[in-house]
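Anyone up for a design puzzle?
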């Protein structure tokens, strides 16, 4: 067990006196053993009266000698043991960061001289780095100007732009994309907000996965489409799809590859996003208007036809003739009025569900692979016209084909349905057939289309209507087979290729994420420099989480690729549901009126959990904060089970010779400016800066991976503290 600080110093001061006493006792013992019996008796008889009368003088003399020797030993230890260690720690900090404070010139003359030399070398290095920074700044001024122009242009674009690496992690997005995701991809019932009434984290952020907001299957399908187009030599390969958000909005997405040079390897993907909900709803209203007009026009035409038929009778008297002529006039007038209203209602251009031009052979190949994977039966594609282009939502259509094939396979009871895909022209449209062998089993066993449709079949119908097409079951004349036939739109002649997106560099970017690892190793085996972190802090009503104290505020920031993302922060006040002690208000400054009406911790923690997803949690004396989070797992429904690092423990590993590892002391040693102290977000930002300064010091001590850091921190005295 590690002794408390100060205990070692007391023992060091007592050690010389104890050694002297032991030496004298051993010397007296050896002397007595060397004398014969008479001499030993005479010596004891002589010394006993002296010891009895003047023993306290000897003890006092021994105590004075021990104290003096202890002080000298302590001074010697501080000067020749602790001082070199502190000098080494300070020199390591200065070696990693030339802007760190100077090495203190304390201790013997030799150490003072050495400290002055280290400071001089650090000053020369700082001057050299300043000169290099000035030269680099001058050389890159033109590049920075162009970058700023692009950033300004990107900020003004109406298009929402997101750039991903190959893993689907976000490395760039503009302000419009951030606004769009905040507005459309937030779960119902939550609202954007920092310290306001609403609660929630941004759905996107640098280093976070796009799959948390856009379905992975959609993204994978789009990527396969792009790779297929690239393999065929398309100059501007891209894929389009539409996705829905938790709030029911429709978002059109265009995905295009990012390549270092024309024809080079793909390093990532660009997403261009548009909210098409209003356009789609406007088009739906137009369609309903046209359907109503069609029905009313049929009725009017029928009435006019009946009236005209009656007017053909030669013996029709004048009053009846006038009455039928009035019917014709009224119906013509009414029809004209309805046409005018319909024209006015449909004057605005709307948008149907966006479809993408796709080579029919590519669609058939992708559908065959999906059906084979779902059913275990191969699919023939020999009867596919290789020159046909379709205008389709390929992801939805392939899903519909796979569903129908699964129903047929289920009805066949294990027999091979002999699936085949056929594609042929049908006038200005296209027939896509899913053929199979046993029509009776498909029609009777599977129940399509006569039986009431389930939810999945309704989805198939929705896919058909989305394409403005038809679907029916058609049996072969021989009775040996059948097919589901889709009537689909053909692509226009000379189908347009997607325009390649322009390069851009908005405010939120980190291009180093292009080189992110594949994430195939366990987190403990990954380098500390390769991980993403959420650095957080809490302010609480008191220091006893198990005794009823509650969280008042949570603040956090993120670190990605060794950079603090100050634009991506979480800062939320919390209604504790209890009183706030005056003693605590003096520390954190949070008064009852500031948290009145704010969200409860049960609402705040799920939002913070989403903000910290797929990252390592970092805090200072984080065991205290984690205890509060753990106690609220049941109330909030979320558990923070990711790895956790503590700057208090890491500082002890980096500077084992230092007595204090408070946040202020660590910041002072590392040259970190402390601001916003005792606010959750302020402390989180200071902790993040400290954490980044500690990483090179840990690396110098052989602590490189997350597993090594956790194992080393677990041996610290502070790691044994419980809350």
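Challenge accepted. My sequence:
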């Amino acid at each position: 067990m590690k002794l408390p600080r100060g205990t070692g110093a007391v023992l060091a001061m007592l050690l010389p006196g104890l050694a002297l006493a032991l030496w004298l006792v051993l010397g007296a013992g050896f002397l007595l053993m060397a004398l014969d019996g008479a001499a030993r008796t005479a010596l004891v008889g002589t010394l006993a009266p002296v010891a009895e009368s003047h023993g306290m003088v000897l003890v006092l003399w021994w105590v004075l000698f021990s104290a003096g020797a202890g002080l000298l030993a302590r001074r010697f230890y501080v000067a020749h043991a602790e001082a070199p260690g502190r000098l080494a720690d300070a020199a390591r900090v200065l070696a990693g960061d030339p802007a760190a404070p100077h090495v203190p010139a304390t201790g013997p003359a030799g150490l003072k001289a050495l400290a002055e030399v280290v400071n001089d070398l650090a000053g020369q290095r700082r001057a050299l780095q300043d000169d290099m920074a000035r030269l680099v700044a001058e050389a890159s001024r033109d590049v920075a100007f162009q970058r700023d122009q692009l950033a300004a242009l990107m900020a003004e674009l109406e298009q929402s732009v997101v750039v991903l690496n190959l893993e689907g992690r976000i490395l760039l997005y503009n302000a419009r994309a951030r606004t769009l995701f905040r507005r459309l991809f937030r779960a119902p019932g939550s609202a954007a907000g920092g310290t306001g009434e609403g609660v929630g984290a941004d759905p996107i952020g640098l280093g976070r996965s796009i799959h948390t907001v856009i379905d992975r299957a959609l993204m994978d399908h789009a990527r396969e489409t792009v790779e297929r187009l690239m393999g065929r030599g398309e100059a501007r390969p891209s894929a389009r799809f539409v996705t829905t958000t938790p709030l029911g909005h429709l978002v059109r997405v265009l995905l295009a590859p990012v390549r270092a040079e024309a024809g080079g390897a793909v390093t990532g993907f660009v997403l261009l996003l548009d909210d098409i909900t209003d356009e789609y709803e406007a088009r739906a209203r137009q369609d309903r208007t046209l359907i109503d007009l069609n029905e009313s026009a049929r009725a009017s035409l029928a009435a006019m036809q009946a009236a005209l038929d009656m007017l053909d009778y030669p013996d029709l008297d004048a009053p009846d003739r006038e009455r039928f002529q009035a019917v014709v006039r009224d119906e013509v007038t009414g029809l004209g009025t309805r046409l005018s209203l319909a024209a006015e209602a449909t004057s605005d251009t709307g948008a149907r569900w966006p479809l993408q031009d796709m080579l029919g052979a590519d669609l058939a190949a992708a559908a065959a692979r999906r059906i084979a994977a779902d059913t275990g039966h191969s699919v023939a594609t020999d009867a596919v016209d290789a020159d046909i282009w379709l205008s389709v939502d390929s992801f939805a259509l392939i899903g519909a084909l796979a569903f129908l094939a699964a129903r047929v396979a289920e009805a066949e009871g294990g027999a091979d349905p002999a699936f085949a895909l056929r594609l042929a022209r049908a006038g200005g449209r296209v027939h896509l057939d899913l053929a199979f062998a046993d029509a009776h089993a498909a029609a009777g066993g599977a129940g399509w289309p006569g039986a009431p449709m389930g939810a999945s079949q309704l989805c198939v119908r929705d896919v058909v209507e989305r394409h403005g097409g038809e679907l029916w079951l058609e049996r072969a004349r021989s009775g040996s087979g059948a097919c589901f036939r889709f009537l689909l739109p053909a692509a226009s002649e000379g189908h347009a290729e997607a325009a390649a997106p322009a390069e851009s560099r908005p405010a939120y970017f980190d291009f180093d994420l292009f080189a992110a690892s594949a994430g195939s190793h366990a987190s403990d085996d990954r380098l500390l420099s390769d991980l993403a972190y959420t650095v957080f802090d809490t302010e609480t009503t008191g220091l006893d989480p198990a005794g009823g104290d509650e969280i008042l505020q949570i603040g956090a920031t993120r670190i990605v690729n060794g950079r603090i993302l100050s634009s991506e922060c979480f800062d939320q006040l919390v209604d504790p549901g209890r009183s706030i002690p005056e003693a605590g208000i003096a520390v954190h400054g949070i008064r009852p009126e500031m948290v009145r009406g704010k969200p409860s911790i049960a609402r705040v923690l799920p939002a913070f959990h989403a903000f910290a997803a797929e990252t390592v949690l970092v805090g200072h004396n984080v065991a205290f904060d984690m205890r509060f989070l753990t106690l609220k797992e049941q109330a909030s429904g979320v558990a923070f089970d990711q790895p956790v690092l503590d700057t208090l423990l890491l500082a002890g590993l980096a500077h084992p010779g230092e007595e204090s590892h408070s946040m202020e002391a660590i910041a002072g040693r590392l040259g970190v400016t402390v601001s916003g102290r005792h606010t959750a977000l302020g402390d989180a930002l200071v902790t993040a800066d400290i954490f980044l300064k500690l990483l090179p010091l840990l690396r110098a001590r052989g602590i490189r991976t997350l597993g090594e850091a956790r194992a080393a921190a677990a041996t610290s005295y502070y790691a044994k503290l419980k809350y």
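A detail worth pointing out: The chain has 21 helices and 18 strands.
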